[in-house]
Design goal:
978 residues; globular; 6-stranded antiparallel sheet; 9-stranded antiparallel sheet; 5 domains; single chain; 9 helices
């Protein structure tokens, strides 16, 4: 049974899942299989919580609901263990790489990072050339600080290319920009933590890993682990904006911490792309590889508005130095052979966006491209171009030039001739003589877009047709780039991602003028360390006269080492150099923190606003979306919230959460700021304004005469609500004041509750100052400040819910972007589900729902309509609930009619432990992240998953129960039919 490849496995209990983990990776290379088994077993042990003990949220972060990029269409899991994706279905139901959204269709099993290199100081020949791989990557320490960190573009202290903390290098005087990586540590020695880092995308996860920890060196494998002694800083991010939603980016920066030079370093990427519905146990067996798709070189016109254009005059003639630049897309793909009858409409591509370059080509590659590549069917031995199983084989492959066009760096391999389970290796490098403390970087992406095997097989020929007129000037084009994009949407997606990576050139901010070129095409700035004697350095390009430039310790001297005018921008008319801003993209406001999120809605959260009530959900959120200035314009451009809901989710096989089609819009709440012509402002006291407004779907209170059932003839369009209210079209007095939010369809008004108190600078000191974020007023150059408030500032009540059923909610934020409002993506995973609970009862009999329980094999036929499809973390997918439990502590004992004890439940038992990892609060204290049976003081409902205390499914029969509490003892019975 293939655990690594399928999520459709039914287990009797979590213990049996871990016990069977020995067969989880049977199709892998034996070395990889053993390594992943060790990681899985470690996470399955789930160390205790408290103190500085390692927990699943610290090391390794692969258990349960982990770090999942879910704001775009590619929903992908990220870990701090050198693994991207989720090859651990026995311990986590997170998607590996699903598209679009949590569709249940996987497009990638995993990406494994490898770093290879040579230690020139080693005396043991076997220790000279080594590679760190799979479970040889660990967080630096077991401390809670060494975990995954979440951020987004625009977060406080995370602005890119900005000196957030206004500090400068004491030796050079240069501003320190993005110097403090987001990892919970003081990286720059200024006694502050994460005060100036760079955040990307609408959701980003960062972490640190090393290959020389005691745990890494204790790994049991087919050969002893000899560390290079390097540190990896990993960032992975996604975008929610149109045009950027179909790819995720990962950046690895490797620092040499060995104390000596490391030579001939390489990045290696082990990529296992599997395409198909995870509901199928063999979805990966009918794939085909496409090694050359979506690779290509695409000349692109540079417009005169682009600083790269660089209009220059010579002998009275003006001409551009960079009229055209070449966009090179580096990547390879795997696609399902037949599309699974329309269930797998996409093609997954691994993209290489960029890496460290040496313009002179001496200590590193001079342009972006792969060093080596091979694609093969699972199980192929290394000697037959299969998987390398030792460090020697890995280094041999990483340093080869196999299947690469040496001139372009593009992959030249032919596709396989049979369908199967394809997997691939690729490499980047070499990077020579990396000094102690030096670093190298590689940025890659995982992209998914529409594409079928039959069409994609035509790409090589169509690409040649596109290149015909380019390679033969004067000839008519046989295929344009637009035609190529129309036929291959996945190519356009990869091209757009590469354009985003390469970014735009911008004028420097005040104080940063010394950090930009002072000559055309100059991409490299050199400044000597303080005290060094100035010296001449030569610049030589074949199409121009060589020059020598004086380099000193006073300022940067700029060179065009790569002899390419398009890689450095300068305007001689204004004597201005330009700063390259990569990953230039619009950004909607970040989604607010909501009280239904698994990282907030846990019983032990001391600051929780509990969402679940008796036939009611109280949704609450904060105002972080309003206090976050747009990262590009620096303006507060927030405009509205949207509230989304999912009901009736049955957990389709392989699904980690609701997909896009499951979400229903409950309300669109617009900020009331007197910009609407229907309203007039009282300029004196800002009092409530109550004009008459036509509302299409107004909700009347329960005691309103309009809701009297006897008035049906008068109000035929009225819709009665379950709690006694009703909805109808109406013209009503809608009372608003500045700062309110209102929904035009329902007339709902959400008013901020500032009595809860602001977020404090010192969370432990209620008298400390409020946290205030600065930005520009919309459309103005005036700096304004906005105060942050915690979850609970805004509340929305949903009464259309039933006790015991699972619901999902999301709140997204919109802005005032040119061309239309940008919204974040609604998303949730199973761990975010919230369940209304019946209230406690005093002096009443406890009852069981449903009774009788009918466990038909077809879930739709069951009387327990809350049942969902079983999965690895919930092996039954069903439950019966005890209602009307008394307040305070209690114990429920369940017996057979013969008196045998079947199971015992307690008010403080965990309910969703299998999908909830421990959580760190804002003080760094670790709490159990699950909900308990008695989730609040008024929770009078408890569930039982029909598993006995011996870990077995219970059988048909009559069962008795006894409830012991401070209210006395209550008894009852119920029936199970299977």
């Amino acid at each position: 049974m293939m655990w690594l490849r399928t999520r459709r496995v039914l287990f009797a209990a979590l213990a049996s899942m871990l016990a069977m983990a020995t067969v989880a990776h049977a199709r892998l290379d034996p070395v990889e299989m053993e390594a992943l088994k060790q990681i899985e077993a470690l996470a399955g042990a789930r160390a205790g919580v408290g103190g500085r003990t390692a927990t699943p949220s610290a090391i390794p972060d692969i258990y349960g609901p982990g770090a999942v990029l879910n704001v775009g269409n590619v929903v992908m899991k990220v870990s701090n263990f050198g693994v991207i994706g989720n090859p651990f279905p026995a311990i986590s139901s997170d998607p590996s790489c699903q598209w679009p959204g949590t569709s249940g269709v996987e497009y990638m099993n995993f990406i494994l990072l490898t770093v290879g290199g040579s230690n020139p100081t080693a005396t043991d020949p076997s220790s000279v050339r080594r590679a760190s791989y799979i479970n040889e990557w660990w967080p630096p320490t077991p401390d809670p600080e060494d975990r995954m960190y979440r951020a987004y573009d625009g977060i406080v202290n995370g602005a890119r290319l900005i000196n957030d903390d206004a500090d400068f290098n004491p030796f050079t005087g240069d501003p320190n920009i993005d110097e403090d990586f987001l990892d919970g540590r003081d990286n720059d020695g200024d006694s502050r933590v994460d005060e100036d880092f760079a955040a990307l995308g609408q959701l980003m996860f960062s972490c640190v890993m090393r290959d020389d920890t005691p745990a890494a060196q204790a790994v049991v494998a087919n050969e002893k682990h000899v560390p290079l002694v390097v540190e990896v800083r990993q960032m992975a991010w996604a975008y929610s904006i149109p045009g950027f939603q179909n790819f995720n980016a990962i950046e690895w920066t490797v620092y040499n911490r060995s104390g000596h030079t490391l030579d001939s370093m390489y990045f290696g990427f082990r990529v296992d792309i599997d395409s198909g519905p995870s509901a199928s146990t063999t979805y990966f067996n009918d794939d085909m590889d496409l090694p050359r798709f979506p690779s290509g070189i695409f000349p692109t016109e540079v417009t005169i508005e682009d600083p790269r254009y660089q209009l220059t005059e010579q002998s009275g003639v003006f001409f551009p130095l960079c009229p055209e630049r070449k966009i090179q897309v580096n990547g390879f793909s795997v696609v399902d052979n037949d599309g699974d009858e329309g269930r797998t409409p996409g093609v997954a591509s691994f993209l290489l966006f960029g890496h460290t370059l040496d313009p002179l080509g001496i200590r590193g590659p001079s342009k972006v491209g792969f060093k080596s590549f091979r694609s093969f069917l699972a199980g192929t031995p290394y000697a037959s171009n299969g998987n390398p199983g030792t460090d020697q084989q890995r280094i041999e492959f990483l340093s080869s030039s196999q299947n690469i066009d040496r001139e372009t760096g593009l992959i030249a391999a032919e596709p396989g001739d049979q369908q199967g389970d394809y997997t691939a290796w690729s490499s980047v490098g070499p990077f020579l003589a990396v000094p102690d403390g030096g670093s190298i970087t590689a940025t890659v992406g995982m992209a998914v877009a529409l594409g079928s095997h039959n069409i994609l097989l035509q790409y090589a020929n169509d690409y040649d047709r596109y290149r015909f007129a380019i390679d033969n000037p004067g000839q008519d084009p046989l295929m344009t780039l637009e035609e190529l994009f129309d036929k291959y949407p996945a190519l356009e997606n990869a091209y757009s991602a590469q354009i985003a990576y390469e970014g735009v050139y911008e004028l420097p901010r005040p104080g940063f003028q010394d950090l930009v070129p002072d000559c055309h095409g100059c991409e490299t700035g050199i400044k000597l360390p303080k005290g060094e004697t100035p010296r001449l350095i030569a610049e030589s390009c074949p199409d121009r006269e060589g020059v020598q430039k004086l380099v000193s310790d006073n300022a940067y001297t700029w060179f065009d080492f790569d002899c390419n005018f398009c890689t450095g921008a300068y305007n001689e008319a204004t004597s201005s150099g330009y700063f390259l801003r990569s990953w230039n993209a619009e950004s909607p406001p970040p989604g607010p923190n909501v009280n239904v999120a698994s990282t907030y809605n846990y019983t032990d959260n001391p600051k929780r606003v509990a969402p679940a009530g008796d036939r009611i959900i109280n949704l609450a959120w904060d105002n972080i979306a309003e206090t976050t200035a747009d990262p590009k314009s620096a303006m507060f451009d927030f405009r509205s919230y949207r509230i989304w809901k999912v009901a009736g989710w049955r957990r389709p096989v392989g699904s980690a959460g609701p997909n896009d089609e499951d979400w229903a819009l409950l309300a669109e709440l617009r900020l009331f700021d007197y910009m609407d012509g229907n309203f007039t402002r009282d300029p004196v006291n800002d009092t409530l304004i109550c004009p008459k407004v036509f509302v299409p779907n107004y909700e009347f209170p329960a005691n309103h005469p309009h809701c009297d059932p006897a008035a049906d003839a008068l109000y035929p369009s009225r819709v009665m609500l379950g709690y006694g209210g009703c909805r109808d079209t109406a013209t009503v007095n809608l009372c608003l004041r500045r700062g309110d939010f209102w929904d035009r369809q329902s007339g709902l008004v959400v008013r901020p509750d500032t009595t809860i108190g602001c977020v404090r600078v010192d969370p432990l000191n209620p008298n400390s100052a409020c946290v205030r974020d600065s930005g520009r007023a919309l459309g103005q150059a005036v700096t304004v400040y906005k105060t942050r408030y915690p979850v609970g500032l805004y509340r929305f009540v949903d009464r259309e819910v039933k006790n015991g059923f699972m619901y999902f909610y999301a709140v997204t934020a919109g802005d005032s972007s040119v061309g239309g409002e940008l919204f974040g993506r609604r998303s949730a995973v199973e761990a975010d589900a919230v369940v209304p609970q019946a209230a406690t009862a005093t002096g009443q009999g406890v009852w069981v729902v449903p009774n009788p329980y009918r466990g038909y094999s077809n879930i739709a036929d069951r009387s327990s309509a809350w049942d969902v499809t079983p999965n690895a973390t919930d092996p039954t997918g069903t439950h019966v609930d005890f209602m009307g439990l008394p307040p305070g502590s209690w114990t429920i004992k369940i017996f057979t009619v013969s008196g045998d004890l079947v199971q015992e439940l307690h008010n403080d038992d965990p309910v969703n432990e299998s999908v909830r990892a421990p959580v760190s609060d804002d003080q760094g204290n670790v709490h159990q992240g699950f909900n308990r049976q008695q989730d609040t003081a008024n929770d009078g409902q408890a569930r039982w998953n029909l598993i006995s205390r011996n870990g077995q499914d219970v059988v048909s029969g009559i069962y008795l129960f006894v409830v012991d509490s401070s209210q006395g003892q209550q008894r009852g019975k119920f029936v199970i039919v299977r």
